[in-house]
Design brief:
Blueprint: E1 3-4, E2 8-9, E3 12-14, H1 23-33, E4 40-42, E5 48-49, E6 59-61
Antiparallel strand pairs: 1-6, 2-5, 3-4
């Protein structure tokens, strides 16, 4: 049975703890440093096929 390369996109939700001198600074750090949460959830119904991605549908193995 072949294996296909299928790129996807999805939204995730989570929370991070970040050191900052103010809430504004913390928000700015989150948006610019993009720290990924250690625990996260995939947002329901957010998974989509990325048919525009290079190699979409390519057979990659068997």
């Amino acid at each position: 049975m072949p294996k296909f390369y299928i790129p996807i996109t999805f939204r995730m939700s989570g929370a991070v703890e970040i050191e900052a001198n103010s809430l504004e600074e913390a928000e700015n750090k989150v948006l610019t440093e993009l720290p990924y949460p250690e625990i996260f959830d995939v947002v329901d119904n957010s998974v989509e096929l990325d048919k525009e991605a290079k190699g979409y549908g390519k057979i990659v193995g068997s």
